[in-house]
Amino acid sequence: MTNLLPPQILTLLSQSVTRRHLKRDREGSHQQIWKDYFAEKCTYPVDYFHRRYRMRRELFICILNDVEAHDEYFIQKKDYCGQLGCSSIQKMTAVVCILAYGFSADHCDEYLKMGKTTAIESLKHFCDVVIALYEGQYLRSPNEQDIAHLLQVGEERGFPDYARNPAILAAHISSRLSSIRNKGTNAALRLDLMEHLWTQFGDQIV
Fold first, then answer.
1. pLDDT per residue over 155-167, tens digit each?
2. Mind giving me the DSSP string for 117-164?
């Protein structure tokens, strides 16, 4: 069979394919993130953290601790060469960049010193952990108490009259569905909703 292949193809097949190794300074990246956002005298104040991570630092740390306790994938380990892998903070930061800002997995390399495969695996593991830990409380459909609370908050903030009546509100939402099918609008609304949920319910997690 191989005799039927052109010489150029045979040459390529005979060559061993080696994976290119990049010397990423993962420890330096972790130390930089810690210095920027988590140290006692960090570079950026808490409002910068909230804006960039889309949540309070206390909430991030709370989720981080839960994730580490549930899935050892997020615990920092040494690789086969004895080098430390990415820390849990690096992996969680990559997850936030992907979920909150729509960054590609490859984008995480420059600041986090993390390969694309690690970023994707971190995202997969994080989603599995979030579903396992928080589905019953935060990923369920809203109950009457949740709706009443949201309507009360809306009334206090001066939302329009239709927001006070669930039936009218449902009809209004149905009429606006077509306006949020636009990809750009949908992405912006998703970010606003995520930030609103953390603001409203973050204190209940910590």
1. 777 666 655 566 6
2. HHHHHHHHHHHHHHHHHHHHHHSSPP-HHHHHHHHHHHHHTT--GGGG
